[in-house]
Write a structure and sequence with these properties.
The chain has seven helices and no strands. It is an all-alpha fold.
């Protein structure tokens, strides 16, 4: 335990606190918490979730800013891994904020009047899916 400095302990404590806060955020922002159905997409709930995510990011951004500082080099390998993990989490949350912004924009539109939105959305989701296993094309042709 002698190789763990005071700075390492502060970083580890902050990351553990962020982990607990992230678990709580996941419960609040998960689709089951929204009770999302296609008929009841609520712009207010989406914006509230975005606000919670950005508040989390604002609170724990200083942890990720350690990567570019001289303090990062003084941390031991495990503490550096914690900081790197936190940076990855922030990247995922940033992507979530962008998705929530897009969802809020689409939530205000009527899908029956804007069929192009449904087509664009389904095409994007189709591209995200993995490719079909080999041999499926042959079965479809038959």
């Amino acid at each position: 335990m002698s190789d763990v400095s005071a700075v390492d302990m502060k970083v580890r404590k902050a990351v553990l606190e962020a982990d607990k806060a992230l678990r709580a955020l996941a419960k609040e922002v998960s689709p089951t918490a929204f009770n999302i159905t296609l008929d009841k997409l609520d712009k207010g709930k989406i914006l509230a979730a975005r606000k919670k995510v950005t508040a989390f990011m604002g609170k724990y951004t200083p942890l990720t800013q350690l990567q570019g500082s001289a303090v990062y080099d003084k941390l031991n390998a495990q503490s550096q891994a914690y900081v790197d993990w936190m940076d990855g989490v922030m990247g995922s949350l940033l992507k979530l904020v962008v998705d929530l912004d897009k969802s809020a924009k689409l939530a205000g539109k009527d899908p029956e009047k804007n069929l192009k939105i449904l087509v664009d959305t389904s095409v994007r989701q189709f591209k995200k899916m993995r490719k079909a296993p080999q041999g499926v094309g042959t079965l479809v042709k038959e």
